Amino acid sequence: MSNVLIIGAGGVGQVVAHKCAQRRDIFSEITLASRTKAKCDAIAAQLGGSITTAQVDADNVPELVALIKQVQPKLVINVALPYQDLHIMDACLETGVDYLDTANYEPLDTAKFEYSWQWAYQERFRNAGIMALLGSGFDPGVTNVYTALAAKKYLDVVEEIDIIDANAGSHGQPFATNFNPEINIREVTAVCRHWENGAFQESPPLSTKRVFDFPEGIGPMNIYRLYHEEMESLVKHIPTIKKAQFWMTFSDNYLKHLEVLQNVGMTRIDEVEYNGQKIVPIQFLKALLPDPGSLGPLTKGKTCIGVIARGIKDGKKKQVYIYNICDHEACYREVQSQAISYTTGVPAVVGAIMMLTKQWHAPGVWNMEQFDPEVFLKELGPMGLPEVVVEGEWPEL
Ligand code: NDP
Predict the structure, then answer these.
(1) What sections of the sequence does the record tag as coiled-coil (predicted)?
(2) What CATH topology corresponds to 2-134?
(3) Per-residue 3-state assignment (H helix, E strand, C coil) for the chain
(4) pLDDT band of 55, cuts 50, 70, 90
């Protein structure tokens, strides 16, 4: 029975709060804190007032330390934005409390998507005897666990991976992003990198396109190659991987809007001067776009996120496709959020369960593929995200 502090009351924070509240056997006390306390209170109201709420600026380490000392959690679940990761890790170090997040630290002024800053905390976390679990969402997160499962159970050697993320859902809006628009657009417009020949190879954003026939009635969709952070930790921790690629579906409509926004400079992440005031165009754009939280009741259809791992088993070439299908409307009925927030929030809670039950626990800074995938998946299915495993042939991408 543990006391947990959740930081961030956006789409993902809402799912995390709901899912923790469903597991009172593990999370006996739940505090939800964020920059805007009213958002925490609205989520607490959905849960019949059974959780505590607080206001915190997670960029202010002394404020965080004071809150952690007051709440005395066993674990801090960070589902604020990637910009806050290091501040929350600093506060955890100061108070001796374990840490979990779903996205790598990002500096405000450059889109990097890399783990270097957080891996640099390794010695400090180990010396303090506390644990940080990085990237416990779906991708990164479950995709790392699926790759670890392929390496443990289905292949003797993993040589290639394709991580494929499909949102086959529709929200009926002309243009909107399913999670924080700033992070989403930064990710999509960044230079593409994939792993091949022992190094990350660069290509222009969204320049490599394929058609992939998704299972379970979703059917063929366009997928585009882009860089995603889990490839960095996967090729480090599973060094037999010779090639790693990440693919995501985008509709023609989404890409049309994105192209125009990019061409007119609305996706810039640097400051521009306007009427004597400095503004960051992508932050202004975020203010104009629909709040991802508001898409929940509107979104229909499914997501399909998974990993195709190819390699050698018993001397023969083999591949395995491990994926999850999640239904937007079913998620909304359960936790009042669409599937993008759901598929991130549920693995965060399962990661927390792994840490609090000590099934995954060691001092230091860790990525998901470094622990036993089977115990995690045993919990993830019943919590709402079961996996499907298809062994054998699959068309090459
Ligand atoms: P939202 O923008 O919906 O929510 C972010 C929340 O963090 C908001 O409540 C916001 O407060 C709060 N916040 C922002 N800055 C601060 C601060 N300085 N102090 C305190 N609280 C702050 O984002 P999402 O819920 O969609 O995403 C949450 C995280 O999940 C992100 O890091 C995102 O990158 C990650 N993610 C990971 C995925 C994965 O599969 N691994 C997939 C999708 C998302 P306010 O309401 O005041 O703005």
Answers:
(1) none
(2) Rossmann fold (3.40.50)
(3) CEEEEEECCCHHHHHHHHHHHHCCCCEEEEEEEECCHHHHHHHHHHCCCCCEEEECCCCCHHHHHHHHHHHCCCEEEECCCHHHHHHHHHHHHHHCCEEEECCCCCCCCCCCCCCHHHHCCHHHHHHHCCEEEECCECCCEHHHHHHHHHHHHHCCEEEEEEEEEEECCECCCCCCCCCCHHHHHHHHHCCEEEEECCEEEEECCCCCEEEEEECCCCEEEEEEECCCCHHHHHHHHCCCCCEEEEEEECCHHHHHHHHHHHHCCCCCCCCEEECCEEECHHHHHHHHCCCHHHHHHHCECEEEEEEEEEEEECCEEEEEEEEEEEEHHHHHHHHCCCHHHHHHHHHHHHHHHHHHCCCCCCCEEEEHHHCCHHHHHHHHCCCCCCCEEEECCCCCC
(4) very high
Q: Which atom of ligand 1 is nearest to the CA of 293?
A: 3
Query: Which among 139, 180, 233 is the best mutation to test ligand 1's pocket, defined by most ligand atoms within 8 Å of the CB?
Result: 180
Arch. (CATH architecture) of 142-335+385-391: 2-Layer Sandwich (3.30)
Confidence of residue 183 (pLDDT cuts 50, 70, 90): confident
Distance of CA 10 from the midpoint of ligand 1 (Å):
5
pLDDT the model gives residue 287 = 93
Question: What are the pocket residues of ligand 1 if the criterion is a CB atom closer than 6 Å to any ligand atom?
Answer: 8-13, 34-36, 39, 56-59, 79-82, 84, 102-103, 135, 137-141, 179-180, 183, 292, 341, 344
**Cα(239) to centroid(ligand 1), Å:** 32
Residues 255-288: tens digit of each pLDDT: 999 989 999 999 998 999 999 999 999 999 999 9
